[in-house]
Amino acid sequence: MAKRKFYRYPLYLLARLGAGLLLVLPRSWALALANGIGYLGYRVVSRQRTKILENLKFAYGSTKSPEELKTIGRRVMGHMLQTAVDFLRFATLSRDQADSFIETGEAYSFCKDILQEGKGLIIMTPHMGNWELLAGIFGLQGFQGAVVGRRIYYEPYNRWIVGLRNSVGVQTIYQDEAARQIHKHLKAGEIVGLLPDQDMDRVRGVFVDFFRRPAYTSVAPVKFAMALGAPILPACMIRMPGNRYKLFLGNLIRPKIEDNDRTASIRKYTEAWMKDFEEVIRRYPEQWGWMHDRWKTKPDEVVAAELKETVKHS
Predict the structure, then answer these.
(1) Angle at 186 (CA atoms; ends 201, 227), nearest 5 degrees
(2) pTM assigned to the model
(3) Number of structural domains, the chain?
(4) What is the pLDDT of residues 102-124, one digit of tens each?
């Protein structure tokens, strides 16, 4: 354990040095460099390349040719590194700078109208486009709120990431304290940002169709919305040509218990936001994190676990 900890700090310093270099470069140069490194990484890191292509094949089946899937796969890692570049520039990002390369349409006025209801707003986005920038632009505009994120258990890294969000007015809620903090922010009429698109078998969920495959999906967002009356707004910050971004808003969802069937209602509204996610991922597949094993949890595994739990308490 001590040996592993010894290497953490030098790696952290190396990461800070690399970030400093990217901040010195013009944004267009830094993004081009990140894209090139991502392309090289795709070629060199066979494990990630294999996982990306496996998931793409699983999702698309025979609807896309092997060459089409490889083309998407080659772009994935480059896009993720470009996303990191724009996140690292938060410390120097102003509202005017953000407005110069981000198209938001009527999103701010739309969200202000919703917040006037006093119930808060849950904005949900998948790990695609630039999810950190999506939160950042609302912070720069003066919206109050927080995003739910994973605690990084090497504290210098954690302080760095949280500090970057703080620099654009975005608070961080850690997953291990999420329930209490989400209630607090929504009751205050603020925005809470969630990224619920990944397979997390440790949380309560249901299987819903995602690329025509059953994907284990958290029901927490819908439960929060039902409990507090907060609407759900799917959204994505998508990279466009010319190193620009465009904010896409999905359909506003107002979860409620229908026909006295809470279980069916939770499933219905969970399917609704997942459908919005899938639509935008299909339009811009190279901007989603295909290295994540989204279909890891299998239906029979969940049934077996529930049966084991029932027997344990019988």
Answers:
(1) 65
(2) 0.91
(3) 1
(4) 999 999 999 999 999 999 999 99
